[in-house]
Amino acid sequence: MLQWKKNRKILLAITGGISAYKTPEIVRAMIRSGWELEIVLTEEAERFVSPMVLSTLAGKRIWKQADYLSDESGWRIPHIALAEWPDAVMVIPASAESISRAARGEAGTLIGGILLATRAPVLFFPAMNVNMYEHPATIQNIKTLSSLGYHLIEPHTGYLACGYEGKGRLPETDAVIHEVWRTLCPDRDLEGKRVLVTAGPTWEFLDPVRFLSNPSSGKMGYQMARTAWYRKGSVTLVHGPVENRCTHGIVTVPVVSALEMYHEVIRRTEENDLIVKAAAVGDFRSSEIAPQKIKRTEDNVLNLSLVQNPDIALEVGKKKREDQILVGFAAESRDLVENARKKLARKNMNYIILNDISAGEGSGFQSDDNKVTVISRTGDMVSLSGTKEEVAYRIWDIILSPKERPGIFE
Ligand code: PMT
Questions:
Q1: Which of 79, 210, 224, 303 is the most exposed place for a label (fewest CB within 10 A)?
Q2: What is the pTM of this model?
Q3: Residue 364 Cα, ligand 1 centroid: separation in angstroms?
Q4: Cα–Cα separations (whole angstroms), residue 331 to 116, 216, 389, 390
Q5: Which domains are present in the chain?
């Protein structure tokens, strides 16, 4: 786990909206994320979600409105103690009423008192009927909260519990967790930067049911994209066929073949500041795709005619400006460093990330972990290992501030 993700303390403030019924699931995900939790409910929230369920899942008592200004002895005053404690506060769901109260700085509730007293970052997750969300009064209140320094997370669009369709859905649980991580991330060095990442394999069809491909899962590329988003980048992920992952916050462009990936990357090359080519692109495709399924042959042989796909990284390298950074990956099984260096030079990359695919388990294709060597244009090398998330984060550390990290590419 990334160092800054360890031992985080999060206060969950639940207000009275129908999507409060989703908070037990969120509490489970928070515990899975290793967070220490305190949970506060408004009186209205108790009508939508059971305090007993929440305290059972969290394994501790929860805080209710009745605890506000309680004269029970032996306590530190709860709204101050709870305000000082967390690394971040989440208001989820943030009802129209709670948004309105917070915008006015009201302290008549336990949550209101905490919001005024805390110096931790506060994330509001508005969720409500679409008309309530789009009402000028709510829009004004949301603007006020943003201007006060609160983080407002846009609700998703879709079917709403009240029977309407529109904007007002609580984001999925994984998206909620990622938003908190993004707020807690100590590095914001990609703020204002546009980042394009490619990930996954390509499928080069031979006939309607068969294709040439490779075992890339897209995990490494996904982590490059996710960690760039944590560091406040505007991220686009062009990916081949991979399993579904939470892409909240990231613009995704799904493609199938190398040719499709080529077109999608080239048309976005100019507008991006950093381009990371983690995809395992098929170098060859069939010269023609058979319209019907290819049958078995009498002589037990099938001759395929393959043509070379464009080299996307090479084309990006030719087009790129001096102020753009191109990072390639190299999956190598022999003469590792030599081959990687040749690719870096030929494709005009700034860095190449060498993946030793002969290293076995715990590295390379499909694994959750990786062992790589970052090689710069000047020939400097740094070896990294860990989960793909940790490796991706360290790659960004190196690329984004090489001079500030002693011993790395000075
Ligand atoms: O997806 P995972 O399961 O997590 O596995 C990660 C990975 C092993 C796929 C990844 O880390 C990796 O090494 N990706 C690059 C694999 C590869 O295709 O390397 P290459 O040596 O063939 O290509 C070198 C570079 O040129 C790469 O940046 C590649 O994206 C790019 N390329 C290659 C061919 C081509 N036609 N166009 C390209 O842009």
A1: 303
A2: 0.95
A3: 11
A4: 52, 10, 18, 19
A5: 3-184 (3.40.50.1950), 194-400 (3.40.50.10300)
